[in-house]
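Handoff note, outgoing to incoming analyst
You'll be picking up this chain. Sequence as last confirmed:
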Amino acid sequence: MMWPWIGFLLFVGIVLALDLGVFNKTAHAPTMREALVFTTGTVLLALAFSAFVYMAYEAHWLGLGAVVDAVDGRVNDGRVAAVKFLTGYVVEMSLSMDNVFVIALIFEHLRVPLQYQHRVLFWGIIGALVMRGAMIGVGAQLVARYHWILYLFGAFLVITGVRMLFSNVTEHEEEVEGWVTRFLRKHFAVTDRFHEEHFTVVLNGRTFLTPLAVALVLVETTDLLFAVDSIPAIFAVTADPFLVFTSNVFAILCLRSLYFGLAGLIQRFRYLKVSLALVLAIVGVKMLGMEWIKRWLGEETNHWLLAVIFLVLLGGGLSSWLADRRDAVRAASAEG
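Most recent structure output, in case you need it:
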């Protein structure tokens, strides 16, 4: 059963090696075109992987799909596993979008040069893989042993969604940023100057952390905070650790590659927070009422969940675009 994991980690390692060693060998600020090309590549890889999931779980390659999924109590065949993977991918993508905005704020506050931001994001992916892998492993074991914990996850997500509607994410992240920065400056020597793309530098025989290292720690910390919301959400879809982990990884790869094209635009999505809050609430309600919802919708529950999440995100995007258009028309009328 370890071979699928080893093969997937090798695949991710190759993708990351190509990213850092070929496409971004020298430090530079990726253009919008480069960001979109790499993002398109990761989306196509995710879709191709969903086809692999279908075939692997249908034929039970290397033991995949041989264990009952603790969420819905059924063995995942090819079609069900592929739908769960894609649903988890969309859920993780949507719930991590706000993280892009927070990362942009961190880079802006620390004045990280554009040409060095990719390096921070690259090593941030490595840390995210380790942290999320550990959280998913623990979460999957808890769900498998104590099915009732799904109801706790559901209640947590609903409460988090409600709080998101009435909280200021920026202020919360600034508090976290301040605490982490103070901790680093108290326990480590930190220089205020960038030294190219290095995370540490030796000055007068003493090792200092550079602002780039501070940015990396902050990115990892915010990813951990966002994972606290997103990891429980995917357990509304499946408790299969392989599906949970792989969908998380593809979502992280896609969003980090899209960062340079999305960071400047995401602030224009004024209804993003509302959309994400609704996604959290919907997933939480699904977990709380899973037995009743399954009897009502049947075996196609995950199809409906995927469709509803897509419509919520699409509605948020269209509402933001229409609001921008309305404001532009009003501004033009006022000038006229």
